[in-house]
Hints:
By secondary structure, the protein is of the alpha+beta class. It has helices spanning 30-41, 56-65, 119-138, 154-162, and strands at 2-5, 9-13, 19-24, 69-76, 79-87, 103-110, 144-150, 166-171, 179-185.
Amino acid sequence: MLDYDSNEGFLIENDHGAMIWLIALKLLDDDARAIQLGAVAEMAVEPAQRDFVGDPLRMMLVSLEEESRFPYVIEAGGLGVGVLTLQCGAARLAGWQDDDSVWLLRGFLIDSKSQGQGLGTLAAKAAVEEARKLTARQGGGQAGVVLSVNERNLAGLSAYAKAGFVESGRYLGGNSGPQRIMYRAFEGA
């Protein structure tokens, strides 16, 4: 089930009853944004994952400053459990053939305390739906979402595949080694 509340974000639920919200940081007032960023500052990843992701708070702060980026806090059970950013005009950063035909999903992580519950898969699905809505609102013409994931990040590869992303090539431009390019088209596209 996927519902949208324009005041809050996306709510998505899996078959096992797990639910997440995507909270759009740019749509929040200063106080609400500060609360969400406080939760982000508490997030961490497992030591083996540090090669694949950056600091969550830094990623959100940078994304708030750039017009092309749309940062989100992933919330489950009233708690911030992860972050992600959608970016337009930057798909080549993931090894895609052009910058503008798709959204780039970047800076995606689930807090170490919340991993293994299927929340990453839910959030990836919600990110695609959010990108579709952004495309409709902005008239950008994007057809889907692309990302790159390190070949050693087996949990990430699995979560993205479960969310409907398909491998679309290999990218050697990442700082932490070879990446798999993964793409998911918008429904009906």
